[in-house]
TrEMBL record, chain A:
Belongs to the binding-protein-dependent transport system permease family. GO terms for biological process: transmembrane transport. This is Glutathione transport system permease protein GsiD. SUPFAM superfamilies: MetI-like. Keywords: Cell membrane, Membrane, Transmembrane, Transmembrane helix, Transport. The gene is gsiD_2. The lineage of its organism: Bacteria, Pseudomonadati, Pseudomonadota, Alphaproteobacteria, Rhodobacterales.
C-alpha cells in the first residue's frame, strides 16, 4: 500500500505542478532539438518535435488524471445514489428498474461504446470523460447496493425507522457512511481503469486533442520510431504502467486497511 | 389482527391489550409471529385485518410522529442495534427526530444514560467501547429519551449471559416503577418473564394459545404447549436476580 501511495503521489504531484509550471513549454516545437538523449537541460530527452519529454509526461499526467478523476466523479455522483435508492427499495419496482438499467449498460462493451461516443460526438477530452464516466455509473450502483443491502437488515436501521426516519434519510445517515470504505476502494480501482481507458482512447486519437499532451497519443506518435527512438514510446508506457500499478496497490492496501475482518487476521 | 405473507399467515387473529403501567409477557418460540407482531405495533408494517389503538387513538402505521414518540423499542442484538460510526450522544438522541430536537437534548441524553446506570461521560464514546450488557442499557436509554408510555422489549435480554440478564431485568423493573412504563416483553424464554411480567400470553404459529396472570401460567398451565415450554425452561439461582 505504501508503494502504491508513493507512486500515486508522485504522479499526482507531477500533474499538479504541471498546472503552474513545466520545465519547458509543451506548445513550442523546435525541430533542431528533436530526439535528444537525456541531458541536464532535458532530463528525459526530447521527442520528434523537440518538445521536452519530462514536460510532456507531466502535462500528460494532468490530462490522464483529470479525465479519470471526473469520470470517477460521474460514476460516484450518479451510481452511488442510484445504488442506495435501489437498496432502500429492495425488491420493489424502483430496484428492478435501476438494476436492470445497470445490467443493460453492463451488456455493452465499454471501450467500444466509448469509441462510438467519441466518434459520433467528436474526439475531445470532455467526450472521453463522458464515455468513460457513463460506464462507471453501474459499477458504483452495484457496489453501493451490494454494500447497503445487508445493512438494511440490521437493528440500527430498524431503530432509525422507529425514530420516524425515511429511507432516504436513513440511506444518507446510516448506510452511506458504513459503505464508504467499499466505495473508496472501488473508486481507486475505477480510477486506474479510467487512466487506461483514457490512454486507449487518445492512442487511437479519440481522447484529448493536440496540442494537449496525452500519454496515449505520445505512444501512438512514437510507434513509428520504436526501433530508432524506443525511449519515446517507453517513457509514456512506463508512466501508464506505474500510475495504474500504484493505484491498484493503493486500492488493495486500502481494502485491507479498511476491512475490519482482514485487519484482525493480520494483527 | 392478522398479517399474511403469501400463503403464510404469520399473525392470525391475535388480540391483546396492554394496560397502562403493566408488563405483559409475550412468549413463543422462533417463527411464531412475535417479530411480525412487533413491527406492526411499531407502525413499521401494515396489518391486513384488525386494528391497533394507542390510548384510544388509531395506531400502527396510522400513528402521527407525536404518537410514535410514545412507543419505543429495545432490540435483541446488542451489537447490531447501534450504528458503529455514531457516538452514544447521537445514537441516544436519534428518537428526537420524531419530536424535534429539544434545546436541552444533551442534558436529557445525559439524564437518560444516568437512569440506566451509565454516566454522562459515556456520551462521547462509540458503541464498540461497551460490553453487551452496557449496550443494552444504552438501547434502553435510547428507548426512554422521548419519555414514552409503552416500551416494546423485543428479546431485549435474550442475547445476554444469565448474570447480566438478571441485572438488566432488575433495571427494567426499577424503571417501570419509577416512570410508570408499560412493557410488552417479547421473549422465547418463559423464565425471563417470570420475574417481571404481570400477565403472560403464549403464542404459537401466529395464534395466542394461552393467556393469564403470571402465577397462573406457571402454576396451572392449561395448554399442552405451555407445559412443554415450562418443562424446557432452566432456572435462575434466586441470589443472582438482585445483583447489580
Amino acid at each position: 500500500m505504501r508503494i502504491g501511495a508513493v507512486l500515486t503521489a508522485i504522479f499526482a504531484l507531477a500533474a499538479l505542478t504541471s498546472v503552474v509550471w513545466v520545465p519547458h513549454d509543451t506548445d513550442v516545437l523546435d525541430i533542431s532539438q528533436r530526439n535528444l538523449g537525456p541531458s541536464v537541460l532535458h532530463l528525459f530527452g526530447t521527442d520528434h518535435f523537440g518538445r521536452d519529454m519530462l514536460s510532456m509526461l507531466m502535462a500528460g499526467a494532468r490530462t490522464s488524471i483529470a479525465v479519470a478523476l471526473v469520470a470517477v466523479g460521474i460514476g460516484v455522483g450518479l451510481g452511488v445514489p442510484l445504488g442506495l435508492l435501489a437498496a432502500a427499495h429492495s425488491g420493489g419496482w424502483l430496484d428492478e428498474v435501476i438494476m436492470r438499467g445497470n445490467d443493460l449498460i453492463f451488456a455493452f462493451p465499454s471501450l467500444v461504446i466509448a469509441i462510438l461516443i467519441t466518434a459520433v460526438f467528436g474526439p475531445s477530452a470532455l467526450n472521453a470523460i463522458l464515455a468513460i464516466g457513463i460506464f462507471n455509473i453501474p459499477v458504483f450502483a452495484r457496489v453501493a447496493r451490494g454494500g447497503a443491502l445487508p445493512l438494511w437488515t440490521l437493528d440500527y436501521v430498524m431503530a432509525a425507522r422507529v425514530a420516524g426516519k425515511g429511507r432516504i434519510l436513513i440511506s444518507a445517515q446510516h448506510i452511506l457512511p458504513n459503505i464508504a470504505n467499499l466505495l473508496i476502494v472501488q473508486a481507486t480501482i475505477q480510477f486506474s481503469l479510467g487512466i487506461l481507458a483514457e490512454a486507449a482512447l487518445s492512442y487511437i486519437g479519440l481522447g484529448a486533442q493536440p496540442p494537449t499532451p496525452s500519454w496515449g497519443r505520445m505512444l501512438a506518435d512514437a510507434q513509428t520510431m520504436i526501433y530508432t527512438e524506443p525511449q519515446l514510446a517507453l517513457l509514456p508506457g512506463l508512466a501508464i504502467v506505474f500510475l495504474v500499478l500504484g493505484l491498484n496497490l493503493l486500492g488493495d492496501g486500502l481494502r485491507d486497511a479498511l476491512d475490519p475482518r482482514l485487519r484482525r487476521v493480520r494483527a | 389482527m392478522t398479517r399474511t405473507y403469501g400463503a403464510l399467515r404469520a399473525v392470525d387473529d391475535v388480540s391483546l391489550t396492554l394496560h397502562r403501567g403493566e408488563c405483559l409477557g409475550l412468549v413463543g418460540e422462533s417463527g411464531c409471529g412475535k417479530s411480525t407482531l412487533t413491527r406492526a405495533l411499531l407502525g413499521l408494517e401494515p396489518v391486513q385485518a384488525g386494528a391497533i389503538t394507542l390510548m384510544g387513538k388509531p395506531a400502527g402505521t396510522a400513528m402521527t410522529r407525536a404518537d410514535r414518540a410514545r412507543i419505543s423499542v429495545v432490540f435483541q442484538d446488542p451489537y447490531g442495534s447501534f450504528d458503529p460510526r455514531w457516538t452514544v450522544r447521537r445514537l441516544v438522541q436519534e428518537p428526537f427526530h420524531l419530536t424535534g430536537r429539544p434545546p436541552d437534548a444533551d442534558a436529557r441524553a445525559a439524564q437518560a444514560l444516568e437512569q440506566v446506570g451509565l454516566s454522562a461521560a459515556d456520551l462521547s464514546k462509540y458503541p464498540h467501547e461497551f460490553s453487551g450488557g452496557q449496550r443494552q442499557r444504552i438501547a434502553i436509554a435510547r428507548a426512554l429519551i422521548t419519555q414514552p408510555e409503552v416500551v416494546v422489549l423485543d428479546e431485549a435480554v435474550s442475547a445476554l449471559d444469565v448474570r447480566v440478564r438478571a441485572q438488566v431485568l432488575g433495571l427494567l423493573a426499577d424503571l417501570q416503577d419509577r416512570l410508570g412504563l408499560a412493557y410488552l416483553f417479547i421473549t422465547h424464554d418463559l423464565t425471563v418473564v417470570r420475574a417481571v411480567a404481570d400477565r403472560i400470553l403464549i403464542m404459537r404459529a401466529g395464534r395466542i394459545v394461552e393467556q393469564g396472570p403470571t402465577a397462573q401460567i406457571f402454576d396451572a398451565p392449561q395448554d399442552p404447549y405451555t407445559r412443554t415450554l415450562l418443562a424446557a425452561a432452566p432456572t435462575i439461582p434466586a441470589d443472582w436476580r438482585t445483583a447489580r
